[in-house]
């Protein structure tokens, strides 16, 4: 089969919805589909929903491989969903094997933030860079790393949990067991805890020129900038891509992030650094999962 004829499926598994897309090798989405996640979201129930949805999105069996993003770390080989703390029963789930048995197609899985970064690096904000990181600001703070054009997952597959780095040793307790992690200052729950408002509401208020909201976003940017400082010193990326729902207010917190980094990071470590909002939005996960499938199938 020639490269231009290859089609793959990218899947993004979430607690409320499962998104699927059928893609060509150049990243064109031929068809997309969103189905409700089964409740409870057990591994077996999710598998059944995915298999039915694959039959719906690829009725003529034209696709050659499947990539899946799951809300938690996978093993380094991309075979096993190690844990998904917000999905019941997701411990050491051999999802790739299950899918291969059910569909007859090669399958690979990755953490959903890793898929989002693969997507942004392929077709989005990261496409001009070989060394970049992604932070997803949402219910939690996810992260992912690409070094020399390759996804970095560490020796056990769990690298890139950028939201769990320490920011304040005496800060709020984190689900990870850490205390005062970046996530505890940058996620939606932290914003609600601090302001009693939703992030989107604060974004609208800032758009209207509300002084308190603008001040909040400036303080938010300072915290995020301090967290990014540690990551920049370790990884010296060419670009930092900011995604997730909270990135909708990027314009309001970006100036403070930039100022904090310029204040704290030596010029050599941040030379040429670009901090960019993600471009693919909710599609990043299925785009990156499709890229994962392509890499797994043919080394693209």
Secondary-structure topology with pairs:
Layout: E1 7-13, E2 17-24, E3 29-36, H1 43-57, E4 65-70, E5 81-83, E6 91-93, H2 95-103, E7 107-111, H3 112-123, E8 132-137, E9 141-147, E10 150-151, H4 183-186, H5 188-195, H6 199-207, H7 211-235, E11 239-243, H8 250-264, E12 274-277, H9 284-298
Parallel strand pairs: 1-4, 4-7, 8-11, 11-12
Antiparallel strand pairs: 1-2, 2-3, 5-6, 8-9, 9-10
Question: How would you describe the overall organization of this protein?
Answer:
- The longest helix has 25 residues, at 211-235.
- The chain has 300 residues and is α/β, with parallel strands linked by helices.
- Strand 2 (17-24) and strand 3 (29-36) form a beta hairpin.
- The chain has helices spanning 43-57, 95-103, 112-123, 183-186, 188-195, 199-207, 211-235, 250-264, 284-298, and strands spanning 7-13, 17-24, 29-36, 65-70, 81-83, 91-93, 107-111, 132-137, 141-147, 150-151, 239-243, 274-277.
- The protein is globular, with a radius of gyration of 19 Å.
- It contains nine helices and twelve strands.
- Strands 3-2-1-4-7 form a five-stranded mixed β-sheet. Strands 10-9-8-11-12 form a five-stranded mixed β-sheet, sandwiched between helices. A two-stranded antiparallel sheet has the order 5-6.
């Amino acid at each position: 089969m020639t490269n231009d004829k290859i089609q793959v499926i990218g899947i993004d598994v979430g607690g409320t919805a499962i998104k699927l897309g059928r893609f060509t090798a150049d990243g064109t989405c031929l068809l997309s589909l969103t189905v409700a996640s089964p409740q409870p979201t057990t591994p077996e129930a999710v598998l059944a929903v995915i298999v039915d949805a694959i039959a719906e999105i690829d009725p003529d069996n034209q696709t050659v491989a499947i990539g899946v993003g799951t809300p938690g770390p996978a093993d380094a080989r991309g075979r096993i969903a190690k844990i998904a703390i917000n999905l019941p029963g997701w411990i050491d789930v051999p999802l790739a094997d299950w899918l291969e048995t059910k569909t007859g197609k090669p399958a690979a899985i990755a953490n959903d933030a890793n898929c989002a970064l693969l997507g942004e690096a392929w077709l989005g904000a990261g496409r001009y860079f070989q060394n970049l990181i992604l932070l997803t600001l949402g219910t939690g703070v996810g992260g992912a790393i690409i070094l020399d054009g390759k996804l970095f997952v560490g020796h056990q597959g769990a690298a890139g949990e950028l939201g769990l780095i320490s920011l304040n040793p005496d800060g709020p307790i984190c689900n990870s067991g850490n205390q005062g992690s970046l996530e505890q200052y940058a996620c939606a729950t932290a914003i609600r805890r601090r302001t009693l408002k939703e992030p989107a509401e604060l974004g609208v208020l800032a758009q209207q020129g509300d002084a308190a909201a603008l001040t909040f976003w400036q303080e938010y940017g300072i915290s995020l900038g301090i967290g990014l400082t540690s990551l920049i010193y370790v990884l010296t990326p060419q670009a930092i891509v900011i995604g997730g729902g909270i990135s909708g207010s990027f314009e309001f917190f970006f100036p403070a992030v930039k100022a904090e980094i310029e204040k704290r990071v030596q010029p050599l470590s941040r030379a040429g650094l670009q901090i960019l909002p993600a471009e693919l939005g909710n599609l990043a996960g299925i785009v990156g999962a499709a890229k994962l499938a392509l890499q797994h199938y043919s080394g693209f």
